[in-house]
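Morning. Coffee machine broken again, so started the prediction first thing and wrote up yesterday's gels while waiting. Chain of 203 residues, entered below exactly as on the submission form.
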Amino acid sequence: MGYPVMLHIANQHVVVIGGGRVAERKIKGLLEAEAKITVVAPSATGGIQQLAAAGALVWRRKTFSPDDIKEAWMVIAATNNREVNEAVAAAAEPYQLINIADDPERSNFHVPAVVRRDRLTIAVSTGGASPTVAQQIRRQLAEQYDEDCGRYIEFLYECRQFILRNVSDERIRKKLFKAIAQESFRKKGNWEEEFHRLLEMTL
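Came back before lunch.
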């Protein structure tokens, strides 16, 4: 059983071994998290090549060698060659985070299927048992939590910061946090106006 966490990987060195479609899909998620990415592959998809040309990542156009991951904080082996993926797993140090795309048992973390709506992140994992099922659930959640939900989460963040800065009474803080998180509040619309009205009634 895995232990779910949210990793802050901005500016962390991540090495992706492989330049195919699986690697490109994983790279997109890493870029969203602002990781510092190096791709090691003798060839790469057009999308990866464009990212390299734009300076979004470094592409080492070569076959894998253990030195490629020596300084990596996280390693992802995403080739279609089992021997190469095995070599990556064997070269990884115990302290490195490593994901082997075709071998969950050799990985110490899995990349979940993700729905992102601004600050809202919903992750779905089957522990490597069925990425297909994880994607199916992800699509269902994406329909349930649309872009409007993302805007509401951003609104909640701004309200929380305002309350923490301006409301010293802990009891009132909790009351406000609870009120703006209610589904009935969200459905009213005009959130800013409703929030100011709530402040006037509470303070």
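The first helix runs from residue 21 to 32. Going to sketch it on the whiteboard this afternoon.
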